[in-house]
Each structure stands twice: as structure tokens, then as C-alpha cells.
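>> received
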Amino acid sequence: MKKIIFILIFSILFNCGKKKPYSNKISDFRPELQIHLNKLKKDKYIYTTDSIATKYLNENCTKEELLQLLESEIPLLRVIAYRTLIKRKNNDYFKILLGHLNDTAKVPWSEGDLQGETMVSDLLISEAITIGKLTQSKKNTLVDSVLTKHLYLESSKSMMIEMNPQEKYYSLIKKQTITVKHPDLSDECKKLTFTYSLSKFKKEKDLEYIKNNFKKFTILPGCNDYIFKSIEENPNNIYFPILEKYFYEIIKKKKQYTAEDLKYYCRAIAKYQNKESLALLTEILDKKNYPDTLYFRFNKDNVFRAIHKYKSPIYEDLYKKMKPKMSEYVMEYLDMPDYNERKTW
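>> returned
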């Protein structure tokens, strides 16, 4: 009993000596700075462009004051302080970032007509990437820290999607593919993205597991693309029935959301370069297979792009037939890098 009381007393004394995180108040700063901090506080949103108040911080705050702001009780001010440090090209910005990855408070953001809410740590990572221009070495360090210690961050998702497979993360990524008992649509999409990350390891033992995860399609636009990207990168025969199933259950029965719906689907099919893939691509070119033909011409473009990317004698006749009918736009950008496929990590 005495031992327990001693431990409790020691714990209380130890914690009393520690400063509470994010406890700095606006009133702790000099009066002229308080005016601008209160203006920023009223904004409520973090914007992609700087306001007059944030420009004032950049021009008038000392480094010490910005570091104090990083411990502000107002999450919005913590993000603005970090952005200001980066814009000043402060050499410590990466070290500071690593020390703030556990900042899970959420900040509302606004960009044009879009609005949302994001954890402070994710916003700091975004600032470091877009403004700070991290080296690959620093990116690798950040990825390792997030995946091993801060997997709850939204940034971990993009890291797992983009990074090259590394064995030390294999078990961690596979664990993420296990869905909750009653998944909502967001969970379904996350499961597909994590399964895509798992598929990049190309382990024979995972083929059946990955196939089962890919059997259920989601209605969320863009999420099914992770199925097709996975198959494109590893076109094992076990996956081809999934592509056929998508054609008969989705393409033939449901309306398309966008002109890009079949972009990765066509590429996944074309990667097989066999009679079955040619037959399925030919079906995509048949207008009668669509309940709504609004995006049909874009589907033809995507078939052509796919067989151009994965040229094969099996596609030669189809390629020659389609090429004269392609627009100048399609032909001009046929071999150009896809802007939407740029990688951060």
C-alpha cells in the first residue's frame, strides 16, 4: 500500500513540473501581436492563401514567438506559425514537424468552394511538402515515423498508396486491410486503398486474399480505381474474372459518374495482352452495352490510350482501326506524363 501511495505522489510531483502542451494563450504575447492573432482566431479557417494578418506574422514575429505560437491553445495558430517558419526557410522546420506529429486537434480549412476539417499534424505535413520541399531522405524519415508511430494520421494513407513496397511495413499494411464488422462507404474505400498497397508486394500467398477484397465494388467515385491499379501493376490471371464481373455488373447496368471512370479499368485489361483482354476491350467499344452513353466517347479514348500504353500484336488491328478516329487532343498528349499520377512520397 505504501508503495502505491509513493508512486502516486511521485507521479503527481513529476507531472506538476511538466508544462501542459498547447497551453500558450494569446494574452501571453506582446500587445501589438495580440491584435493580429485575434484577427486570425476569428477567421476560424486555415486558407491556402495568406491574409493580411498572416503576412504581418511573417514580417514581424521573431523565431521565438513563432515557436511559442506552435504551443498555442488555438490549433489554427499552430498551423499558421509553422507555415510562417517554413516560408522563412527556417532550417529547423523538419525537426519541428517530427516533434508535432501527435497533434491530433482538428482545424477547419477552406480552398475555393471546398471545405473540410483536418488534423493539425496532417496540415503540418502538407505545409512541409508543398512549401518546404522535403528531400527524399527526409520524406523517408517522415514516412517511417508516421507509419510506425502515428498511423492514425490521414497522411499515412497516401504514404502507403504511393511508396514502393518495403518488407518492414508489410505486416503493418496487411493489418490495415482488415475491415470493420459493419463497414460504411468510407471504410470500404479505405480497405481497397490498403489492399492496393498490399498488392504491390506481389506475394503469392496474398493472391486469394486480395482477390476476395476486390470482389466487392463501391459506389464511391474513384475508389474502384485502386482495384484496377493493382491489377495493372500485377496482372495475375486470378484477377481477370474481377474485370469481367465489373463489366457485367457495373458498366452494363449503372450510369458512369465521370469521363475518367474507365481510365484505369481499360489499362488493367490491356495489360493482359491476350484474346480475353481484346474481347473485353471490344465490348467496351460497343455503344449498346451502356445504359447511358453520355461518356461513351471518353471510354473509346481510354481504350485507345490503354492499348497504346501496352502495345501488343494482339491489339494491332484494333489499334490501326481506332487511331484515325482519335482527336488531336488525344494524340497530342498520348505519351505525356499524367499530371494526376504525380507522387509525393
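>> The beta strands are 46-47, 106-111, 114-119.
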